[in-house]
Amino acid sequence: MKRRGFLFVWLFFVGGLLTVKASPLALINLKKRFLTYKKPKLDENSLTGTLSDAEMRTILALVEVAAPRTKMQSVDHEFFQRHVNNKTSNVKGYLKEYREGAKLLDETTHKVIDHRQDFVALSVAERNTVLEAILWKYRAGAILKPRVELLLASRTALSFREFVLKDLLAAFYRSGMGWALVGYIHYPGTPAADPFDYAKPNVDLLS
Q1: Taking a C-beta distance cutoff of 8 angstroms, is the pair 19, 27 a contact?
Q2: What is the DSSP track for 102-122?
Q3: What are 24-46's pLDDT values in tens digits?
Q4: Which of 8, 9, 19, 108 shows its CA 20 to 30 Å from the CA of 77?
Q5: Number of H helices, E strands in the chain
Q6: CA–CA dist 141, 40 (Å, integer)
Q7: Distance from C-alpha of 36 to C-alpha of 66, rounded to nearest angstrom
């Protein structure tokens, strides 16, 4: 059993013992600490600005493996570059998080793939390996495992998930690319050139 899996089982076992022996008030207090422990926050005293060219290339390389898309879609680098520049220039804390995220991707690449290569030079499969080394895997809607991650993962990894990866994916799903992925031919709420667009199959999704 891997160390991460062992720790997960151990915490689950201890949690079961506490459920049996602890008072209701103690369990409530434990639950509050469990849900909020190490939850990352943006540094609102940090500077705003834009990433370096090298940092931006690293973030775009991340998007290429993280953003879902159909076979017919390609990653719109300009869209994501505009999004990241807008966020890091206008919201305090995001420049710091994106820079630390790019650094984390390269440092993890050096540890698990090749100390002579950076994240941008990796294949798609190798980039996924790097992400798996940084992030815990769990299904959407999972409750226990994300809380255990808060206890065991580093602050850098937690912030990377919360402020880099989630931010990029949220931007993707708010865009036309994201809506196309779920079957809309045009952005919901805007008039279509053809009023019967809704009845047409999405060719990209069928490919």
Answers
A1: yes
A2: HHHHHHHHHHHT-TT--GGGS
A3: 665 565 556 555 566 789 999 99
A4: 108
A5: 11, 0
A6: 19
A7: 26
